[in-house]
Amino acid sequence: MFRNQYDNDISTWSPQGRLHQIEYALEAVKQGSASVGLRSNTHVVLLALKRSSGELASHQQKLFRIDSHVGIAIAGLVSDARVLSNFMRTECMKSKMMYDRPIPGSRLVSLIGDKAQVNTQNYGRRPYGVGLLVGSYDEGTGPHLYECLPNANCLEYYAISIGAKSQSAKTYLEKFAKDFGEADLDALVMHGLHALRETLQQDKELNLNNCAIGIVGKDHDWELIEGDRLNGYLDRLETGASTTGATAAGDLVQGEAMDTTEL
Amino acid sequence: MLSTYPGQPAVDHPVSAPIEHRFDPYVDNGGTLLSIAGDEFCVVAADTRQSEGYLINSRYVPKSVKLSDKTVISMGGCYADCLTLTKRIQQSMEWYHHAHGKTMSTAAVAQMLSIMLYQKRFFPFYSWCILGGLDEEGKGAVYTYDPVGSYERESCRCAGSASSLIQPFLDNQISFKNQETQRRNLSLEQVLRITKDSFTSATERDIYTGDYLEIFVITKNGVQVQKMDLKKD
Question: pLDDT tens per residue, chain B (233 residues)?
């Protein structure tokens, strides 16, 4: 009710103790098409649904390489994602120059958090309108998956999804989360695709153009899988094969009905 | 006191004159490098001795770095400058890859290096660079530089402390200069033999060259590295 009076700029609190501009920025992330991330003890897999503005248009790229051991999936304003990924790339190179070692994922994500926070406290600025899923593999501590949002919160996850209808993907991920740790790379990717499929609209399906997979892990530099290389995975998706609990493919229909309010 | 001040004639009565104290930022770490372009290959070879005057810093510090599957760079001169310049090239190549989704071609790296060197025209990188690789047609390419970025594509070149010993030999044996023998394309084996002989001979006469020889061979199958011993005296 009072939202309209206190939502004009970032430096105004509402009487309920909220910063509405941040919530509006989070809304921009929720409106973006879905991205999913999940990790095992050896790999991180990021998947994204690529939107296109029309039949004749290309599909928007959603997975970006940051360094050989770090990749991101985005949801929201792509231009803001570009700025943040250039920042991350610079920080990765600085780390290699200064300390002669690849930057740990946690440190990189802290830098994003600090940068995003500035825009939540200075008058005249606006929060970044993009959510990032950051997948990294660190030599000492293994694979990590982080979610970075416009509210400058950066949290680590075993599995997460952001963007439109992401709650449906989360439901799938929660159901099978206990299998992810020990899963091999193939099974992990198939779980990710199943989760991503949950975010599709009623009559749509995953195809070579609207889907992308990014993998990083032990002895596995960031690899982007798009186009024809998706064939193998998508074919197995149709037959519902290759994940433990493959019968789940049948009883996942409920995912649509469970689309409750996201927060 | 006799005048022994720098730049002053020797005299037998006391003099006083200002002396300029400076820090010389450059050091010559010695060593020799060469690169030869073949029909479908390129060879980049350099010794691995790093020295300062009569002192040997290390018997094994590589002077050549693989930049991509089709490009190798080798640098002689001041090792600190060479190292930083190499890192900057690698960073620029990585930005290029982020922006364009593909590896920089050898010719593009060549042009970029020239620009980077001239950007420090008034405090130069003390680096004698040779860039070797395959061009977009798959033929061998060698690009030679001076420390401020003047560059040119050639068929073969050597640089460094023994360059004046090796270059004439290469001109004669690779480019068939100053002799009546017909010019012919050399095979990889022939070029490697000439390379190894060049270095073993240079090692005999040049005190800054020796220890080990590292040879990078670039073909359409990628980059392979060989290492062989040189005399260590």
Answer: 455 567 767 788 888 888 899 999 999 999 999 999 999 999 999 999 999 999 999 999 999 999 999 999 999 999 999 999 999 999 999 999 999 999 999 999 999 999 999 999 999 999 999 999 999 999 999 999 999 999 999 999 999 999 999 999 999 999 999 999 888 899 999 999 999 999 999 999 999 999 999 999 999 999 999 999 999 99
Contact B94 A97 (CB under 8 A): no
Q: Which residue has the tokens 């372009």?
A: B37
> Which of B87, B95, B98 shows the shortest C-beta gap to A97?
B87
Q: Which residues pair with B35 in a beta bridge?
A: B44, B157
Contact B87 A89 (CB under 8 A): no
In chain B, residues 48-87 whose CB comes closer than 8 Å to chain A: 87
Q: Which of A65, A86, A93 minimises the CB distance to B91?
A: A93
How close A17 gets to chain B, by Cα (Å)?
41
Using the Cβ of B205 and the Cβ atoms of chain A, whether some distance falls under 8 Å is answered with no
Say yes or no: A93 contacts chain B, CB-CB below 8 A: yes
